[in-house]
Write a structure and sequence with these properties.
Blueprint lengths: L4 E5 L4 E4 L6 E3 L1 H5 L13 E6 L2 E6 L6 E5 L8 H6 L3 E3 L11 E2 L3 E7 L2 E7 L18 E2 L27 H11 L1 H10 L1 H4 L10 H7 L7 H14 L8 H8 L5 H17 L1 H9 L7
Parallel strand pairs: 2-11
Antiparallel strand pairs: 1-2, 1-10, 3-4, 4-5, 5-8, 6-7, 6-9, 9-10
Helix pairs in contact: 3-4, 3-7, 4-9, 6-10
Length: 289
């Protein structure tokens, strides 16, 4: 039986059930109700996940360490108390490596990241009698957050993420588009391969490099693909470049299997000489290491 993990967000005045089959990111919206723009969002922040029959806390934030303290009765859920009573400090990640995760025993844990904090209830009943909510009432269970993919609207949970909401049928629209254009799907997986591999401080492959590897029409083809995808997802062709990889990956629209197909296509193009022709056609000169 899976141990339940619930997160209380003082900034949002709500608590959040964590699904054991997915990562719950402890990022900008959960820590600060999307107020602190200096905090990172999903993929490059802290998070909790259920691995090998236990919950663990991990850190992919390259700018901030995590302070973890056992919460005792009456301890305010503040970052100040977490730092002063910390039993463990999880260091910031490096560009190539996240620190070893921390297994979470049953109990209440106070987590501080920067000036913000959350409470973790691991396998214990919620004890919210001393937790003030933003509305002045005790918090009620919120629907599971979509891991920083949406933003709150008036009357909705503040555990929605930053930016415009995706269209209601965005996933099905993109899936249908990819079904018709498999090369586009492979190109986006190749372009966002660092994100798919969950690399810390992930970066896009250059558009020109993708065009050469996959023998695309020109070096602006990826930019055109991105605009089309943003229109399908948000009905905005150019305002969501940062959110695009998170949406595609978290919606399982690109993954390791798609990336492997893209890499195999790149190898086939190299063997058949298409890559050489593409380099000449696009005037691509790889930078020397």
């Amino acid at each position: 039986m899976t141990t339940e993990l619930v997160i209380w967000s003082p900034a949002c005045g709500q608590y959040l059930y964590c699904p054991p089959d997915d990562i719950t990111w402890i990022g900008r919206k959960l820590l600060s109700a999307s107020q602190d723009r200096h905090l990172h969002r999903g993929i490059v922040c802290a998070g909790v996940r259920y691995v090998a029959h236990r919950w663990e806390l991990f850190n992919r934030d390259t700018d901030r360490e995590i302070y973890l303290a056992r919460r005792m009765p009456g301890m305010p859920p503040s970052a100040k108390f977490a730092r002063s009573a910390a039993q463990l400090v999880l260091p910031a990640a490096t560009p190539r490596l996240e620190p070893y995760p921390v297994p979470l025993d049953e109990g209440e844990w106070l987590v501080a990241i920067g000036a913000w904090s959350v409470l973790l209830f691991v396998g214990v009943p919620l004890r919210d009698d001393d937790l003030p909510s933003k509305s002045g009432r005790h918090a009620q269970p919120a629907p599971p957050a979509d891991n920083d993919q949406e933003e709150s609207r008036p009357g909705e949970s503040t555990l929605k993420a930053d930016g415009d909401l995706p269209l209601a049928d965005a996933v099905s629209r993109v899936r249908a588009y990819f079904d018709r254009h498999r090369l586009v799907q492979m190109a986006m997986a190749y372009y966002y391969q660092d994100y798919i591999r969950n690399k810390v401080a992930a970066q896009e492959v250059t558009m020109l490099e993708v065009a050469v590897a996959l023998n695309l029409t020109n070096q602006t083809t990826i930019a055109d693909y991105k605009k089309e995808l943003q229109k399908l997802i948000w009905n905005q062709p150019s305002r969501h470049q940062r959110e695009l990889p998170e949406f595609l990956i978290n919606s399982c629209l690109i993954d390791y299997s798609v990336l492997n197909r893209a890499l195999q296509l790149a190898l086939a193009n190299e063997r058949t000489g298409k890559t050489t022709v593409a380099r000449q056609r696009l005037e691509y000169r790889p930078q020397k290491p």
